[in-house]
Design goal:
Rossmann fold, 28% helix, alpha/beta, two-stranded antiparallel sheet, 2 domains, 9-stranded mixed sheet
Length: 273
């Protein structure tokens, strides 16, 4: 039996146009979805539960609207959901967010903590790793294949990390390493982040959607996890990029064009005088 926790974030649909209004991203009319990399993590959690038994919990930080993503995860097959109210934590700061989420996850005592490699909106990919650090969990990132095995199979799959021989179960993880792959073996409990190619996420079924309405969805605040350590970064401003200027064609010989290009770049401050 595996106690599995999945970190999940609701993000903009990748085809949505981002509009900045009054110093904030306008979300009211935007289509929001489960972060695609978190979908791979959730699908892997469901597959591992099918193989080994156990429970799958999804944990997210967000406002009321993020419950749409959690209900989708429950419809896909997760057993339980927990929403950390984003109004109770500096969710734009990865340090504060990881601290708050770690305090919620710690009492759940997961055997396996799964997350997406990164969120497509912020792209930092650091929150899950910071949670692993706070919980003292080993981790493997960018997984494209995952197996949960016993000690004998783990020894046959690769070199065990120091002090891991006493563990009852191990994760054998094939990682994407910039176009190549490597296999690592880590003891459970552990964190693993999912890369594209790990699996093909399933769609919620109609019975799953109906069952999701009756599955537990808990709502908690950061205060419930203890004293907040505070944010380490703050956003001073948010603004869209400047409109792209019209193209310009330079006339003359190649030497004259190069000279004019240098002059224009210097005039715009792109090159030193």
């Amino acid at each position: 039996m595996l106690n599995i926790v999945v970190l999940l974030k609701q993000t903009f649909d990748t085809e949505e146009k981002i509009i900045v209004k009054d110093g904030a991203v306008a979300e009211a009319d935007a289509k929001l979805v489960i972060n695609p990399y978190d979908e791979y993590a959730l699908e892997e959690a469901l597959r591992q539960r099918e193989l080994h038994g156990g429970e799958v919990r999804v944990v997210s930080c967000g406002g009321d609207r993020s419950e749409e993503a959690l209900r989708t995860a429950l419809a896909m097959g997760a057993d339980e959901a927990i929403r950390l109210d984003s109004a109770s934590v500096e969710s734009e700061d990865s340090f504060a967010l990881a601290t708050a989420l770690a305090k919620i996850i710690e009492p759940l005592k997961p055997d396996l903590l799964l997350a997406g490699l990164f969120a497509v909106d912020s792209g930092s990919g650091s929150v899950a790793l910071q949670i692993a650090e706070r919980l003292g969990l080993p981790h493997a990132s960018a997984a494209v294949k995952l197996g949960i095995v016993g000690p004998d199979e783990a020894k046959a799959s690769g070199e065990l990390p120091p002090g891991a021989a006493a563990a009852a179960r191990f994760a054998v993880v094939e990682r994407d390493v910039e176009g190549d792959a490597e296999t690592v073996v880590i003891p459970l409990p552990a964190l693993i982040t999912a890369q594209q190619g790990l699996n093909e996420p399933r769609y919620p079924s109609l019975p799953g959607i109906m069952k999701a309405k009756r599955k537990p969805l808990a709502r908690v605040s950061a205060a419930a996890g203890g004293e907040d350590e505070g944010a380490r970064t703050s956003r001073l401003a948010l603004f869209p990029p400047a409109p792209r200027a019209a193209g310009r064609r330079l006339a003359g010989t190649p030497a004259e064009q190069a000279s004019e290009l240098v002059r224009l770049l210097q005039a715009e401050g792109q090159l030193p005088q």
